[in-house]
Amino acid sequence: MPRLKSVEELQKLRTQLQKNIESRTETSTTITVGMGTCGIAAGAREVMQAILAELDKRDINAHVTTVGCIGMCHKEPLVDIRQGDEPRITYGNITPAMVSRLIEDHLANGQVVDEWVVGRVAG
Amino acid sequence: MATLIIDGQEVHAEEGQTVLEVARANGFEIPTLCYHPQLEPYGACRLCIVEVIRRGRSRLETSCTYPARDGLVIKTKSPPVIEARAVILGLLLSRCPNVPVIQELALEYGITEPPFPVEDPEEKCILCGLCVRTCHELVKADVLNFSQRGIERRVGPPFLEKTRQCIGCGACTIVCPTGAIEIVLEQAGIYKEKPLGPTAAIWVPSLQAVPRVPVIDTDACIRFRQNDRTEGEIADACGVCQMVCEAGAINFDQQDEVVEVDVGTVIVATGFQMWDPAQLSQYSYGKSPNIITGMEFEHLSNAGGITSGEILLADGRKPEQVAIIHCVGSRDHNAHEYCSRICCMYSLKQAHLVRDKTDAAVYEFYMDMRAFGKGYEEFYERVQEEGVVMIRGRGAEVEVLPDGKLRVKGEDANLGRLVYVDVDMVVLSTAIEAPHDANQVAALFGLSRSVDGFFAEAHPKMRPVETNTGGVFLAGAAQAPKDVPDTVAHAGAAASMALALMDQGEVTISPAVAVVDEELCSGCKTCISLCPYTAISFIEEDNVARVNEALCKGCGTCVAACPAGAIEALHFTDEQIVAQIEGVLAWV
Amino acid sequence: MAERHRADLLISCLHGRYPELIPTLQEEIERRGLTGEVGVVEAGCRGLCAMGPVMLIKPGGLFYTNVQPADVPELVEETLIKGRAVERLAYKEPVTHQSVCYYEDIPFYSKQVRHVMHDCGMIDPQSIEEYIAVGGYQALSKALTTMTPKEIIEEVKKSGLRGRGGAGFSTGWKWEATRQSAGDVRYAIANGDEGDPGAFMNRSLMEGDPHAIIEGMVIGAYAIGNVRNAYIYVRDEYPLAVSNLNIALEQAREYGLLGEDILGTGFDLDIKVVRGAGAFVCGESSALMQSVEGKVGEPRPKHYHATERGLWGQPTALNNVETWANIPLIINKGAEWFASFGTENSKGTKTFCLAGQIQNTGLIEVPMGITLREVIYDIGGGIPGGRELKAVQTGGPSGGCIPASLLDLPVDYDSLVEAGSMMGSGGMIVMDDRTCMVDIARYFLEFLKEESCGKCSPCREGIRAMLEILTRITEGQGKMADLETLETLAKTVQTASLCGLGKSAPNPVISTLRHFRDEYVAHIEDKKCPAGVCKALIEYYIIEDKCLGCGLCRRKCPQGAISGEKKEVHVIDPALCIKCGICRDVCKFDAVGVR
Amino acid sequence: MGVDFEPRIVAFMCNWCTYAAADTAGVSRMQQPPNVLPIRVMCSGRVSPEMVLRTFRAGADGVLVMGCHIGDCHYNSGNHRTAKRIPLLRNLLSYAGINPDRLRLAWVSSAEAPRFVEVTNEFIKTIRALGPLSQGVTE
């Protein structure tokens, strides 16, 4: 285990460790993946894993949660992204291949990927 | 230096003093049970509580632990103080209803009955911790400590079992304010030869000695015993005497040492010792504290003694009848056959003292009244006039009655019948005898001892202070029982004899010495090794033995041994002796 | 090192009941292919101890109570895979019996302000990494590198932090006094000898967030100066606290946050855990220090404050573990922030343990000044069975009883003392109308009789005497004069005892006499126990109107004192009845009465 | 042997112990027969075997040698010599035709006047029983 020799080292370690408990810390970004039977059947798990990997790669602090079926089974896998007080954006028919762009545009650049959006819910 | 106000009076305190110390030094009375000046303050009994007003705030604090800070205002008797002490004493009296010291203190605060009675009224320990702290801080034996807690708390050795760590010093029993600790002597003896009652390891061997200097009994002293026991590991135990001695006169490092002095004359004045009356069981000595020896009576009656000269029984009462038994151990075939000479007169004196100091009736059991000295007979008559009952006949037996009274039985030879009296106190006029180590002294100086054990003088009539060893003289009771005037006279005589010898500056030796007839001497050297005084030396060039006349004492051992008949003892020559033999045998 | 998870299951208050819960969970997670995605953490206390094991799922804040191994497959399927709440595991609102799924929505938590306990239950207490990740040792690095000792003390003084052990002495002043006492060697001690019956705030903190205490102590040691050794005194009945603290200390040493040259600043400090020896009195500061020194834990006179002559005669700062754990908060967030909670004279938040006749027994943290009513009814969920509140006992055995009439009393140091009780370390025992106040006073004195060290006579003998009088009263043998005697005794024990234990021992008597004198009088004059507790003074009987003749009481009665035909009114034979109260407890119709 | 036989016994007494004891016995008016004829020597160690033999030759029926107890000798060790010599001499006596019982060694300290009387009386009795020492006849 590293012996910390300065405050800077402590700060560096902290930044590094923070990711590990990200799920427990407050964040403004929540990504929700539909995980009803319909979602799983449509490949929601793979999508979710891709999201987690992408977040990790880009070092983005966001909560990833799962929900059950919301009734739009034909649009599964459904992915909701919510940032702060912004309206919730729901994307439909997401595949793992789309995840990289989704994260890059929406989370990193703040650009909603309009062509994949299926709905916006305020509040 | 701090200034305080105690009960309205301004007092000054040294650095480090507590409120209690300052208050007591200035004459304020504060009760304590767990305080001892030689121990760290503990603050357990809480009786020394006083009201402390500091920076305008009033609180109850224990004065034994509270530092005497500058500007304190102390009230030792304010109503909250009195109330708290009364409640505490009520609680302590409830715990220990039968402890006199608690009863007395409680009474001072108006409490006569235990307000919260407990089941076991025999409890004596108030858990003040004095014993525990003494054992830890002073004795450094750490035998006693507390176990359990709360109301179950108790004092004892580990696991309440007997422990070898305990050196039996008894310090705990002495500091215990309530008498809750008893010491059980499995090996009796160390207190035996001490003055009346329990004594400390530092004591004054003779109360009226000048200078009146105490000695430390290293066999009993805690410091020495701990040092010896732990081979120096605990070298600083106790030391209370050093702490309290204002003159700084206690020196533990002082060692016994052998001092060699060259002297020309020696006066042996080793005195006597008191005979132990426990050897004759009929006197019941040791079975009642009110059966005492004449020597113990002297301690009792001494103004500097434990009762300040009052003649009291062990329980503090004044006696109503006192019996004095003469000739205890003297003139007795089972003890000493001789008359100790001094007992009659001291017994009469003691009878006089009892009459003088108390209203007690006095009975003297005597065999013969030997009032032989100047004015003695007159004193005897005076004592008789004082109302002392004289019973002629040996006091034969003392019986301790169940109620503690003492029954003295004896024969009244004048009436020719057995009598007994019941008394409160019996004084045994014990014999005096030669000191137990007289034989060692005798061997050291070449002295003879009489049948009675005292040193023998050179001649019972003609040479009462000289001994058979030249230059060694006897003085006082070392020679035979003597009273004070006789001792003074005898000692004077011994001193004059010694001085006379010294004044001459030279000694005259006996002419009865051995001489060697060098013509006959064959030089065999037999005589040389025989001489106890190395007075014979061998002269190499002449091949003969020669006697140094100054060294020769004239015993004649060499004469008897000389194979050549070459040595003669002057004044005891063979010829002279044979002439004597023939002379005496000439008688038909 | 932990991995990045999309969800963490934080499990608390296992209390050793379901050791297989966590392995079962981990197996199920693996079986469902969620390994690496979902983490399982055994975290510190979340307060709702009576409902343990509890599980908080982050993110989201789903909160389950009474989670058992059998619930695991459903829980994983529904919550982790499908993201749905399992309602039957949710917290039940005690009054409305409604399920509340989310942590934030539970009134027990929503009224609390969890500062000291914030990380407790959120992180794995055996992992310094998690503590660092949530911002641990930030205060330490700030204090050591950007603040002078004087500034730290000023900050603590300004925050208004007062000792959380009960006496409420200003922490900043205490540190300053210690700093100003001459000494090349000074000591810092954390008091974790929590002994009050029903109180476990300190244990939860030591078990759940040991690093917070350590961080606070390092900061304090630096501020006080010349402290090279510090001690955490933990009662030996807290093995998990001892082990978590030791793990935390070892980790801190490895990371260079303890030991020599902390964080390269040149500051040295080591901390050791000292295990207590099972005596209540060792929570008293002077006895505690005696105990740390290896002597019998007995109080000594305190005319010199520990800040002058404490451990081994050296200046010593002795604070409760909770006090120490507050320090990093003050340094991180500032004195103003800290002082914004609480009242004029009592700043910040305080942890309490709710126990007794209350719905939500457990550990809470509230801002100072909150009213008793809020604590008992809003957080505590009120009295079970809708019974009436009679009193709240605060401050442990030597605290006092606050009557229901003072329900709007703000909970802070001074108000509690005024009401005849004290803050203590934070125990709160709620008593309903079935509690006899005389019996309660007797109970606490019984405890204190056992726990008094016995050194000083007023405490040792006075408690015994008071207890005897109280026992007499509960047995119906009391006299009116006893009350006066009790008051005199109590006053002397209070003023004349050596240590805090003795000085506060009469509090239960004094406060119940003050607020519930009528109950004493009822025991003495009427020979009645109004609450129906004191056996010598009560009689059980069947209320004929209510008895349906179910026979339950008859079957449960250990003495066979109850008779009656089925469906007919039963009777209790007073001659056989031993007044155990089982019939009253088992009767579903409240048909057993006491008179 | 006749009842009127009065033995003649020569007693060598050391000046410091036995002679003093005899003196005390006299002073104390202790009864003793006149058969013992005292010869004072400074120390019992002065008594040579030759002198004992000359005493027998001179007509003594018995010889007593008396000195201090061992350890009490005025000359430290003189009586140690006596203690060695006299038993040897007793062996020699029978060779010379004299019953060894006619020679006795006894320790009597100055304090032991009664013992002095006892020892001498006892010895007189022994000699009285042995009868007179007949010159030239082997016993």
Could you characterize the architecture of this molecule?
The complex is a heterotetramer of chains A (123), B (588), C (595) and D (139). In chain A, 37% of the residues lie in helices and 20% in strands. Chain A has 123 residues and is of the alpha+beta class. Chain A is elongated, with a radius of gyration of 16 Å. Among the domains of chain B are: 2-77, Ubiquitin-like (UB roll); 263-506, FAD/NAD(P)-binding domain (3-Layer(bba) Sandwich), CATH 3.50.50.60; 514-587, Alpha-Beta Plaits (2-Layer Sandwich). Chain B is elongated and about 115 Å long. Chain B is built from 15 helices and 25 strands. Chain B has 588 residues and is an alpha/beta fold. Chain C is 37% helix and 16% strand. The model of chain C has no long low-confidence stretch (mean pLDDT 88). The longest helix of chain D has 18 residues, at 78-95. Chain D is built from 4 helices and 4 strands; from the N terminus they run βαβαβαβα. The model of chain D has no long low-confidence stretch (mean pLDDT 88). Chain D has helices at residues 18-27, 49-57, 78-95, 113-130, and strands at 9-14, 36-41, 62-67, 103-107. Chain A binds chain C through residues 1-7, 9-11, 13-14, 17-25, 27, 30, 32, 35-36, 40, 45, 48-49, 52, 56, 63-68, and chain C through 1-8, 10, 33, 37, 39, 58-60, 80-84, 122-123, 129-130, 132-135, 137-138, 141, 144-145, 251, 254-257, 263-264.
Helical segment tally of chain D?
4
- By secondary-structure content and strand pairing, the structural class of chain D works out as alpha/beta
CATH architecture descriptor name of chain A: 3-Layer(aba) Sandwich
Question: What is the CA-based Rg of chain D, rounded?
Answer: 14 Å
Annotated CATH homologous superfamily of chain A: Glutaredoxin
Query: Biggest interface pair, residues each?
Result: A-C, 38 and 40 residues
Number of contiguous helices of chain A: 4
The order of strands across the largest sheet of chain D is 2-1-3-4
What value does the average pLDDT of chain D take? 88
Distance between the termini of chain A: 45 Å
Sheet with the most strands: spatial strand order of chain A: 2-1-3-4-5
